[in-house]
Design goal:
Elements lengths: L1 H25 L17 H14 L5 E3 L10 E3 L11
Antiparallel strand pairs: 1-2
Helix pairs in contact: 1-2
């Protein structure tokens, strides 16, 4: 069991590094300007956390929808790694 925990910790560490590189390359929200968030309801740090959570936890065919901002738009963040996939457990 310890080896599985170590592997999970290493995967999360690697995920953090890769997600940081992806965020730096892609901007704060998928397809947004890298100099600031496109959605007025989220600041840059919040958008980064939503994107990181979605990319790490969800599969590539899933999306995480953030709460609506003042303009009513709900930004969606695409998944990638699927580490929280309940089918894998």
């Amino acid at each position: 069991m310890r080896s599985a925990e170590r592997l999970a910790a290493k995967l999360l560490g690697l995920t953090a590094v890769l997600a940081g590189a992806t965020i730096a390359k892609a901007g704060t929200i998928d397809g947004a300007d890298p100099h600031g968030p496109k959605h007025a309801g989220l600041n840059a740090q919040q958008a980064m956390l939503w994107k990181y959570t979605a990319r790490c936890a969800l599969r590539s065919d899933q999306e995480l929808e953030a709460p609506a901002g003042p303009d009513g738009d709900k930004p969606k963040f695409k998944g990638s790694l699927g580490l929280a996939d309940s089918r894998a457990m």
